[in-house]
Amino acid sequence: LGCAQLENLSPYIGEKLRIAAGYADALAGIPGITPMPAIPGVDGTYWLYTVLVDAARFGMDSRQLLRQLQEQGIQSRPLWQPLHLSQPHRDCQFLGGGVTDRLYADGLSLPCSVDLSPDDQARVVRAIARAAGQAA
User: Fold this and answer.
1) What CA–CA distance (Å, rounded) separates 70 from 132?
2) Is the pLDDT assigned to residue 121 strictly greater than 70?
3) Alpha-carbon span 31 to 106, nearest angstrom
4) How far apart are CA 15 and CA 17, in angstroms?
5) How far, in Å, CA of 31 to CA of 27, rounded?
6) Which ranges constitute the DSSP H helices of the chain?
7) pLDDT tens across 8-53, in order?
8) How many CA atoms lie within 13 A of 69 on its CB side?
9) Which residues in 71-98 are b (16+ Cβ under 10 Å) and which e?
10) Got the DSSP string for 76-107?
């Protein structure tokens, strides 16, 4: 099974790069939405495509946007909860947490499976743009 999947690795990465570039271009002009940055010298594969939602600038927080997208049949998801916020670890000592807390609160992963068509991706972008307009 693993060998069969490896045969598709290059095409899958190509699709992920196409999707990431599409989101980066389309979302760059929406106030309060920060597309995933590219790091110079690093070749990302964009397994997930996550944006940050600045509630003050966008007009709603990431969870409100998640619900707006969900109402339109678009599945998105928050980033994973930081370990120090999980029930078994809430009373444990930890160092830092500010960055992970902010990413968890503001991060929203958008649809990005390799079979996401350009039309489907455009639908996601339109829904985000409409949500920004409704929040304004």
Assistant:
1) 15
2) yes
3) 14
4) 5
5) 9
6) 2-7, 9-27, 55-58, 62-71, 98-106, 118-135
7) 889 999 999 999 999 999 999 899 999 988 889 998 889 999 999 9
8) 25
9) eeebebebbeebebeeeeeeeeeeeeee
10) -EEPPPPGGGSGGGTTS--S--HHHHHHHHHE
